[in-house]
Design a protein that fits this description.
The chain is rod-shaped and about 90 Å long. A hairpin with a 4-residue loop joins strand 1 and strand 2. The protein folds into 2 domains: 79 residues, no CATH class; 61 residues, no CATH class. The protein is mainly alpha-helical. The chain has 6 helices and 2 strands. The chain has a two-stranded antiparallel ribbon with strand order 1-2.
Amino acid sequence: MPTSKLVDASLGLRYIIIDLSKVDANVLDLNSAETEWLELFTRMASAKDAPKTKDPVIADVYSRLAVSALEKNFITEIATGMVTEAEISTRIGTARREGRDEAKLSAAEALLRDNDPVERVARVLKLPLEKVQELADKIAAEKVGK
């Protein structure tokens, strides 16, 4: 079994490192769970599919680590799905602008319902006259419909 020994003389510690990727699980006398874990460590980098296993944790590890089974443009696909900081800033700016526009329209509706003139509402709230007129027409139609 490939091993390597490390000694940290300053602390008096000794470590044994076992490279599990080089272990042949068939040679060892292990129970099936230990054997499956060793196979996982030896095969996961090159596995195309997860082996049949009764252990759901091992199956999950294979599904998460079987990167070689993914398409070659995996990184590109992931990067394409990521949102850049500039895009986040743009989305926040758009949301703010839409929020301000909604607030202005809500205020315009309240002023128009209080019979303020269309031109004054448009000027004070800095809204397009056409937009305020549409809103005034909608309010007038509601009043007629009642």
